[in-house]
Amino acid sequence: MNVSTIIVTFNSAGVIRACLDSLAADAAAGAMEVIVVDNASGDGTPALVVREYPWVRLIASRENLGYSKGVNLGIRSATGRFLFILNPDTVVRRGAVQKLVDFMERTPDAGIVGPKLVFHDGSVQLSCRRFYTFTVLVMRRTPLGKIFRNAGAVRDHLMLDFDHESTRQVDWLIGAAMLVRRQAVESVGLMDERFFLYFEDVDWCYRMAHKGLKVYYVADSVVEHGYQRESAQAVINRSFVAHLVSLFRYYEKWNPLFYLLKRYREVWKVLLFFVLDVVAFNAAFFAAYYLRVALDQVFTNPIFGIRAYKGFVVFENLLFVFTFAALGLYRIRRETKSVDELFQITRGIVFASVLLMTSTYLSQIRTYSRMVVVFLVPFAIALDWFLRTAVRRLHRRLLLLKVDLKRACVVGPKSDATRVELQLMQDDELGIDVVGVVDTAGQSDAILTGTLGPVEDLERIIDRYRIQHVIVLPGALSDEQLADLVTTGRRRVIDVTMLTDYTGLVFHQARVTDLQGRPIIFYPRDTRYLLDRFAKRALDVVGGIALAVVSAPFYVLYSLYAFSRARRPFSVVDCVSARGEPLAVPVAGNAETNGPSDFVNLPLFWLVVIGKMSIVGPYPLRPEDARHVVRGRVRYEMRPGVTGYWRMGGAVIRREDLLVRDAAYAQDWSLVNDAKILVSTLWRMARGRRRVLEIVNGETGVDRAN
Q1: Of 433, 401, 408, 64, which is closest to residue 249 (Cα–Cα)?
Q2: Could you tell me if residue 493 is left (phi over 0), alpha (psi between -120 and 50 degrees) or otherwise beta?
Q3: Residue 677's closest CA among 536, 503, 542, 509?
Q4: What is the Cα 669 distance to its own chain's centre?
Q5: Which of 16, 67, 74, 76 is nearest to 39 (CA)?
Q6: How confident is residue 230, by pLDDT bands cut at 50, 70 and 90?
Q7: Do 99 and 218 reside in the same domain of the chain?
Q8: Which helix or strand (DSSP H or E) is residue 272 part of?
């Protein structure tokens, strides 16, 4: 197939007939496949296409994916050497497609070519443009544009002085009709799906230019385009808002000022969290002070007025901030979990409060009420954790909206690097926008290689593509090259991540240090290990008995309910316990679930009390899954748990990922980690996020949010 035409429709029943009829009438249609991607139209567009145009391949989405996702869906299904992206409100004049193909064939540096767009009356649409500047944005998107209609910047942007009857290279083309070389797509990538509507065409053309591919306006190919964009016709409407959102995303992605701000994002994050902490500390002080005032009758000593606490508040803020800095609470990381931050905040505030209390004793100052400090601790912990968590959730929401992504490249052999690239792009919360791969297998820096270039040009690639994060595959760089890259990273303020096959070497308090100038991994001896294991078992006994007592009435009620429905209240699942011994795990309801399914389960807690299970531990595997265990001796030193890291993810997990998580838990085990897992589990239960786990094999596993 030479040409694949891709049309994305949304409530397009009124215009799609004319478009498809014009394609059918074209002599080139015999060498063309037509794919219609429908974005959940409600006006019968899919039925119309199926009924009247059986030669068209329809892809019907159950939801409105947006324009760029729709185009990408069509591209993945297309077979042609050239991809003709077409709006449904167009009419293709005879020979227009063939003229675009002929031009592309004789112009090897062309990535995208577009026809002359005209209205149905034959008047020319301004479909080729120069890239946006700040002046153009102000003129085009504010009332100033109506005042200064003939501003030079706008005329230059719209190419008003260009003869639209002549063919020439341009910056970008309106995406209503464009022919794209498949090799260019393989090299540059698909449309950026962060653009739901608008600016996906500008971004695509900009990326083509980055790869050395050119965009051409071909005047002798003519396509009729039915109407102007809605966003350009009204001051405020839904389409206009979508245009502004896409505009922001485009500038957030490419603007040098945004790039500079994101390079130093850690500075801004530290300042933001510093302000949040100060707000929390002061709010906590006032809450503690006025609580002490309200309880004045309870205490024998009187409470001094608020003015007497000026010096106390200043000292409190300085002490808390310096304590947070010393404990690393201003090393802001995206991957920090909420429960981890809660424990860090608690440690910092308790430590600072002890110092604060001690200082009042040593100074023998009677002005300050020490009960204010006591009340201050829980208020400060709760407020600071709440503010930090709110900001982190807002940021995660921005990442899901594809805002504030780190531009990254993957360094390694092209096939391996491309696979890692796809994996990274599937996880929105990583906040990584992989621009492409840097090949280490001798790939030349040609425009259609599908890479950003060879590893020898890595520093130039970082500058050209505004890379903020370099991810290096195992063995991709020599020690000297890696050292040069780290030095470059320090100088250019970029992150460098080295993926390694030796992940099993870094666990429980391992740290990189040096021995006579040589870097080593050091594992300090854990003198508390046996004591901590004894404490874990004691806590299991006490906690298991307590949970069994609490769950007893629920167990009775559930059992009576099950018997009334002629069902067995519990089934038994054959699992593997510590040291690989067989273990029968009771499951509420259906035994097809892979392990403990309910925290209110009396028989389950009895297993904890007698030492067959633990409250926190690895997943209780079935025998068929246990056969795949790696580092089994480490994993089987721990009793399987009622909860564990496996409760922290989605409802479906790949067996390989589950085993890796369990091995990491066993290697890095500590009472503090157990406490974090338990708090996270209780928090999820309080929010109604009940988990039933499904273990799948290989690539079939997909993490889904509960």
Answers
A1: 401
A2: left
A3: 536
A4: 28
A5: 67
A6: very low
A7: yes
A8: helix 265-294
| Integer CA distances (angstroms), 296 to 290, 293, 299, in order | 10, 5, 6
- Model confidence at 699, in pLDDT bands (50, 70, 90)? very low
Buried b (16+ CB within 10 A) or exposed e, 109-135: ebbbbbbbbbeeeeeebebbbeebeee
Domain that holds residue 63: 3-131+166-227
Residue 182 is encoded by which pair of tokens?
A: 């498949």
Q: What is the DSSP annotation of 315-374?
A: HHHHHHHHHHHHTTTTS--TT--HHHHHHHHHHHHHHHHHHHHHHHHHHT--SS-HHHHH
Residues 607 and 666 in one domain: yes
Residue 527 or residue 295, greater confidence = 295
**Residues 552, 490 share a domain:** no
Phi/psi for 266 (5° steps) reads: -60, -35
Placement of tokens 């014009």 in the chain: 22
Spatial separation of the C-alpha atoms in residues 86 and 92, rounded to whole Å:
9
Domain count, the chain: 4
How far out from the chain centre does Cα 262 lie? 16
Q: What is the CATH number of the domain that holds 217?
A: 3.90.550.10
pLDDT at 334 over 60: yes
What are the DSSP E strand ranges found in 176-300? 177-181, 214-225
pLDDT in tens, 357-413: 887 666 655 567 778 888 999 999 999 999 999 999 888 887 777 777 888 999 998
Give the CA dihedral 632, 638, 643, 645, nearest 10 degrees. Answer: -50
- Least Cα distance to 187 among 132, 113, 110 occurs for 110
For residues 647 and 694, is the Cβ–Cβ distance under 8 A?
no
Distance CA 517, CA 512 (A): 12
Strand positions, DSSP E, 426-554: 432-439, 453-454, 469-472, 495-498, 511-515, 518-522
Same domain, 316 and 422: no
Residue type, 630: V
